[in-house]
Design a protein that fits this description.
The protein is built from twelve helices and four strands. With 288 residues, it is mainly α. It has two domains: 81 residues, no CATH class; 201 residues, no CATH class. α2 runs antiparallel to α3, α6 packs across α7 and α9 packs antiparallel against α10. It is globular and about 60 Å long. The relative contact order is 0.14.
């Protein structure tokens, strides 16, 4: 395909471009994924749906830079997506991860201080196991943080922003982000409904983190990926490590249904405060 048909795609409405991009990725993925699903269904592929899902994301990463070059004419597509300099990326990620982890620590401290939870003496059952849980959680949280931020705040937010105002693009991206977490069986969707508001707010916070300046006139993926990873790691550590034990003083919808802070009033309050901080950070005051 020559450059002309690709370049014309830049004039299409944002949602149409998004659908075309996804159709390209799925068309490349499906012939490779079907045999993997066949093997998985017969118990011949370890990991179940893990390999087809990983393959889908790898193809997404393969198509994305070509899309940026051919449709946008970008000579440095990864920089436009949000990979701005190793130093800036590392600093932003570390800062975001620390902020996210501290936020979950504050959430835990508040629950203990108010008597809504107590420290579980059997949590992680020893320092060695706790360290193992922390390391596994850090690896998983980093993978989730980077993969979701490249997808939603790297590609989707940028794509919708080419034709829509920044506010509308951010709102639409956050809504799609929340809905994407509900692509599950119906009974699971019903059980997860209390998390929807939290996921929507989470998406807004990550979008504002994406707009934190890392250099004059430049933003990157370091802050949102780090913040995302820090929050997921803190949640993983508290839940899998069983570090807190609810006292039952307040209903579960206050602290989080099924232990998920996104499905509770306290978690929404935390995200709101974090959102206010990140919003101000992403909109530095202009000199008078």
């Amino acid at each position: 395909m020559n450059n002309l048909p690709w370049a014309k795609l830049a004039t299409f409405p944002p949602l149409v471009r998004v659908l075309i991009f996804l159709l390209i990725v799925v068309a490349l993925w499906l012939p490779l994924a079907l045999p993997l699903y066949w093997l998985s269904g017969r118990g011949l592929l370890p990991g179940g749906d893990l390999f087809p899902t990983a393959l889908l994301y790898i193809l997404f990463l393969g198509v994305l830079p070509r899309w940026e070059r051919q449709v946008r004419g970008e000579s440095h597509p990864w920089a436009k997506i949000g990979f701005i300099g190793r130093g800036e990326l590392a600093k932003g990620w570390a800062t975001g991860a620390l902020l996210g982890a501290l936020s979950l620590a504050v959430l835990a401290v508040v629950q203990v201080a108010l008597g809504w939870a107590t420290v579980n003496p059997e949590g992680a059952r020893g320092l060695t196991l706790l360290v193992q849980v922390a390391l596994v959680g850090a690896a998983a949280a980093s993978a989730v943080g980077w993969s979701e931020e490249v997808l939603f705040r790297g590609w989707l937010l940028r794509e919708l922003g080419q034709g829509w105002s920044p506010a509308i693009a951010l709102g639409a991206t956050s809504l799609i982000f929340a809905i994407a977490h509900f692509i599950k069986p119906l009974d699971t969707i019903v059980a997860m409904l209390p998390q929807f508001a939290g996921l929507l707010l989470f998406g807004l916070v990550m979008g504002w983190a994406r707009r934190i300046p890392v250099a004059p006139g430049k933003t990157g993926l370091g802050h949102p990926a780090g913040l995302h990873a820090g929050l997921v790691w803190g949640y993983y550590l508290l839940q899998v490590g069983s570090l807190l034990r609810p006292t039952g003083v307040v209903p579960a919808w206050v602290t989080g249904l099924d232990g998920n802070p996104l499905a509770g009033l306290l978690g929404l309050a935390l995200l709101s405060g974090l959102g206010g901080l990140v919003f101000r950070w992403s909109h530095p005051a202009r000199p008078v």
